[in-house]
Amino acid sequence: MSRKNKVKTEDEMMYSDEMRLEAKYSSYNKRSSNKNQVKDAKGTFRRFILLLKPYSVSVIFVLICSIGVTLVDVVSPDFMANVIDTLQTSIENFANNGTPISFGSVAQKGTVWYELFLIGLLYVGQSILTFLQQFVGAGISQKLVFNLRKDANEKLSRVPLSYFDNNTKGEIISKVVNDIDNVSGSLQSTFISVITAAIKVVGSLYMMLRTGNFVMTLVAIILVPVSGLLSYKVSRISKKWFKKYWASMGALTGHVEEMFTGHNIVRIFNHEKQSIKEFKEINYNLKHNSFVANMISGILNPVLTLISNVNYVLLCIFGGCYYIGTWFLSGRKIPVGNRMGLGSIQAFLSYSSNFSSPILSISSMINSIQSSLASAERVFALLDEKEMSKDDTTNDNKENLNSEVKFENVSFRYLPDKPLIENFNLTAEPGETVAIVGPTGAGKTTIVNLLMRFYEVDSGAILLDGVDIRTMSRDKLRENFGMVLQDTWLFKGTIKENISYGCDGATDEQIIEAAKVANIHDYIMTMKKGYDTEITEDGTNLSQGQRQLITIARAVLRNPKVLILDEATSSVDTRTEILIQEAMDKLMENRTAFVIAHRLTTIKNADKIIVMRKGRIVETGNHESLMKENGFYASLYNSQYTGGIPEDAE
Prior knowledge:
Largest sheet: 6 strands, mixed
Number of strands: 12
CATH topology of the largest domain: ABC transporter transmembrane region fold
Mean pLDDT: 76
CATH superfamily of the largest domain: ABC transporter type 1, transmembrane domain
Structural class: alpha/beta
Distance between the termini: 56 Å
């Protein structure tokens, strides 16, 4: 193949990919148009404005500064008109009579130097007011965003676990970071601009009317209705696309977070190409939505600029007519009293420019406002999410709990039309170890979620020492529990900080003792900094088994009344499993313990084994009695050695 043909083929392939992506996301955007449609733009704007209420004093100060800054722009052409008219008179006197041109003095009113001195003072004052305006405005913006982000973070602590199940981490991060940042930037840049623009338009209109030349004033304001209509039409369309843009940004953030968090898995399964392909598709969607949103908003600027230029030319023609005293086409004379000098014409053109410039900048303002409203709507959607039911603290002060746990006719469904737990009954006596086994999807982990009140039961009740756990605050309830999960999670910080997580005030001796019980102390002491060793994000500088041992030490330090182990030894080798099992046996002494296990050899010594299937208990007993029954448990147990799977297992 020739180089020319090769290049052509590559170009065709690139074009083909581009067309494929465009076709794919054209249909995607059609399908998601209803989802991304603005629900209540006016309501979002009103709510956005109400956020400024706590800063009303600062907002009023910014308004005063904005009025001062704008008034300088509005009145300065009047002073310049006096300068030009004075110079014109002096030049005409010199040409006609030979009278020397005089600029006068700063102290002499009506002279050139006096007018220039006043103009200088105005511009110095304007600079000071502009600085104060920007400084205070930035403070308002940052305080508002600080509170927004604080409210969002607090909201995430109150939403039910189902919210995190139904939304990707990237989407949530994008709302808390990207969308709020966009609100901040738009507020800081647009808030002052909108105020200044409104004052400048009103002030300039007043100054034009003050000249008494209503014909030129009418020509100048023709721009307003045309600009208003165009802006209204464009804003309705662009808001929808900005909403899509920020939704795409959330999808991209989620994809990047997922791919880089699980980069080892991506590489192990040779998923790099597919990951890159997915990234390109999401990135293309982001580019497409951004391009359309900004293109639609950008249409305003050239159109309004054209209208403004035509308007300016007309004003120059009319101004020329008023200066020479003759209408341009008809040749009719203009009364002397209605004629205008050069200074007055220059001032009027400045008024017209001040009047039209804010309207011309409306395209960029609309772009920014629509983008910020789209982001604000997404943030408000988070803040409006349904929260967990309010805590009932009736039994928060109950003392001497003996850790008896009882499920009474408990029913629960994640989805209304898909039953999971139905009429579930179980009693765990104080100090009893209860193992919960069953096929995947049987409802084992759901039982733990209900016990910890990550989800609320649909009916029935869960009792802790005869007390309905719904009559205890979630914090108080969870103080009685310790959990070791299959998926370890460590935070960036030292080993000491990770072991003592959630146990404020724990001493070094207590931390070391917990590590010894979990059989991780000896390994920690082999590290250069010991317990002060920094753990990287997600604990990637430790092995999976070491991370699990640290989480077990965390549970030991908590000294809970009820212990929950969800496949706590599934990620460690056989030798470490034996060490952990010994530690767990010590930890479970005189404590009620729930053990979720897939490796059934780990729960042979449990006091009670609950065999679950499709949300129901199908068998109960200890290991020996269940094996003698030769039922579902026996078939599950034997399958781990024979390699067979029970015929009636899910």
